[in-house]
Amino acid sequence: MSNLETGFHWRDGWFFKRLPGGLVRVTHLSVGHELVSFEIPPNEWASIVCSVTRDGETGERWDAARKFHGIEP
Q1: Which of 4, 37, 46, 70 could cross-link 27 (Cys pair, CB 3.0–4.6 Å)?
Q2: Domain coordinates of the chain in residue numbers?
Q3: Contact in structure between 15 and 29 (CB atoms under 8 Å)
């Protein structure tokens, strides 16, 4: 498995990749080579991004996160 197939490698086998339509695939490859993968829908990804920022999530910031991610209302 290469970085190109799995996306951005954060650390310890965790990868993040933006998919068409704004989905985000999170993949984990464990030391024992067990592969776990799941996808986060665009609206939920925008909530995650906003929620972990200093100012938190508001409707306006959520809209901005969606736009930044390439998802127009």
Answers
A1: 37
A2: 1-40, 42-73
A3: yes
Measured from the Cβ of residue 18, the count of other Cβ atoms closer than 10 Å reads 15
Contacts 24+ apart (CB under 8 A), 26-29: 29/1
- Of 40, 36, 38, nearest to 28 by C-alpha is 36
Backbone angles phi, psi at 67, to 5 degrees: -65, -45
pLDDT at residue 33 in the model: 85
Residue-wise over 25-46: b if at least 16 C-beta within 10 A, else e?
Answer: ebbebeeeeeeeeeebebeebb
Q: Is the dihedral of CA 4, 30, 41, 60 positive or negative?
A: negative
pLDDT for the residue numbered 3: 55
